[in-house]
Automatic annotation (TrEMBL):
It comes from Mesorhizobium album. This is DUF1203 domain-containing protein.
Amino acid sequence: MSIQFKGLPTEAVHALQRGAPDAYGRTPERRISDGDGVPCRHCMKDVAAGDAFLILAYRPFPELQPYAETGPIFLHADECERAEQADTLPEMLKSSDYIVRGYGKDDRIVYGSGRVVPTGDIVARAETLFERDDIAYIHVRSARNNCYQCRIDRA
């Protein structure tokens, strides 16, 4: 099975970079990166030391519902190129492990699909989850803080 890691959609990211409100209706906060642990969810690379970035509330679901988790993410403050959709781990995934969790077509968690997975096993875990008909897509989230990292779809 082939999979694709996907960064956030460019149109939505550019709107946020231009000052559009985040998931809580607030203007994204602007900060300067120290170069440590500031992964942009659009280009899926770390924001370099000295570069500006945004902190904002993001909800990777189309509408509000009980399973529509909202949380903090980082983006480059200036426009960056969206990461190419690929079947290999994004550059920004540098922690030792992540939560890998499946969602159904109704955008709700598929119970029993979530697991903390060593980073090197994410691709294999995603391929295993996609063998199930009830998994429409997968989120990769921080194992420590549950922050959204990226989405995985079937290729």
